[in-house]
Amino acid sequence: MDAQHLIHLRAQKDKFFKEHTQSPLTAEQQAKFSGLTYFVAMPKLDLVVDVHEFEKPENVQIQTTTGDTRWYLRWGEFTFTVGNEEARLTIYKMPPDHFFLPFVDTLAGKETYPAGRYLEPELLADGKFRIDFNQAYNPYCAYAPTWNCPITPTENRLKVAIRAGEKLPDDAWAIK
Question: φ, ψ for residue 157 (rounded to 5)?
Answer without folding.
Answer: -100, 110
